[in-house]
Specification:
single chain; 173 residues; mainly alpha
Length: 173
């Protein structure tokens, strides 16, 4: 998880050398696990593919980025979640949806967010992405419903999150 988080963070902040190093670390971890534990080796491979996809995007190769992150999603979809682990911090499908939304492909992103929410309902980032994608596709009914759900699920406990301010602003119009 640490190497995955660092790879994503490094890639998204422009530290491509750091991202490459962490992706290499993921590959090394996968290689060590391959003969002993296929499940965990595949989990690491999902993370490596996803991180490599984000690095490809940062480098401007969006076709490769989508292909790599989609490969991570496809592999992840073949595995059940291990009973002793919590939910993913950043699932590959949500990462793909975020990437598609960033690449101005909101209809494709909307499908991915909705698929994500079918297995992980009420996930904050996926709900936010679904609302944004629906808004960008012109589906104001879905955008309104999802922003309303996002606000309803979020209890104010401190300063207002910018995402909730966005949702409330949309609902006010």
């Amino acid at each position: 998880m640490i190497a995955y988080a660092r790879a994503l963070g490094d890639a998204q902040t422009g530290n491509t050398a750091g991202a490459e190093a962490e992706i290499g670390r993921l590959q090394s971890l996968e290689d060590k696990l391959k003969g002993n534990d296929t499940y965990w080796a595949n989990q690491v491979e999902v993370q490596r593919l996803a991180a490599a996809g984000i690095l490809a995007h940062v480098r401007g190769d969006d076709e490769k980025a989508i292909a790599l992150v989609r490969a991570a999603v496809d592999l992840d979809a073949t595995m059940d979640k291990h009973p002793a682990t919590p939910s993913s911090v950043l699932p590959a499908r949500e990462l793909l949806a975020d990437l598609l939304l960033e690449l101005n492909q909101p209809a494709a992103a909307l499908i991915e967010y909705q698929t994500m929410l079918s297995t992980d309902p009420n996930r904050f980032r996926s709900l936010l992405g679904e609302a944004r994608a629906a808004k960008q596709t012109g589906d104001s009914v879905t955008a309104h419903d999802v922003y309303r759900k996002l606000v309803a699920l979020s209890k104010p406990v401190g300063p207002t999150r910018p995402e909730l301010a966005e949702a409330k602003s949309y609902l006010a119009n």
